[in-house]
Design brief:
7 helices; 2 strands; 134 residues
Length: 134
């Protein structure tokens, strides 16, 4: 609840409240919901905006034919749409999303980044934020 109270991102506050509500009401959901809670707690508006932007670039690459359909958990190709989007954001922001395993690719020690898109965890976070309704 502290993380929700200190966040400036309205969707994050609502999602954290929803996660706490689920965990309190259903013992079977405590473990996965607590993991989601810990992950969301580490994100703020710029992280969420960047993650959403990368996801939209992926969809753009798929719509344009630059990226074919990719099987779940399969390696995604490098696309211009995603690369252009990643270049708009700071290395520190990209590095943080990568360290949380929300985006796929690599970030080297010298700041070189090759990001191919969102991970299944990144998509799950975005879906939770899109579906939040209290």
């Amino acid at each position: 609840m502290i993380a929700a109270g200190t966040s400036a991102h309205e969707g994050k506050r609502k999602l954290l409240a929803k996660i706490v509500q689920r965990a309190v009401l259903d013992d079977a959901e405590i473990d996965p919901q607590m993991l989601m809670f810990e992950l969301i707690e580490q994100l703020e508006g710029p992280h969420i905006r960047c993650l959403e932007d990368i996801h939209r670039a992926e969809r753009e690459a798929q719509a344009s034919g630059e990226m074919d359909e990719v099987a779940p958990r399969a390696q995604k190709p490098i696309t211009r749409a995603v690369s252009r989007t990643v270049e708009k954001y700071s290395e520190l922001l990209i590095r943080r999303l990568h360290s949380l395993q929300l985006i796929d690719g690599s970030v080297t020690w010298d700041g070189a980044t090759v990001i191919t898109g969102t991970t299944s965890s990144g998509l799950q976070v975005l879906q939770e934020l899109h579906n939040v309704d209290l």
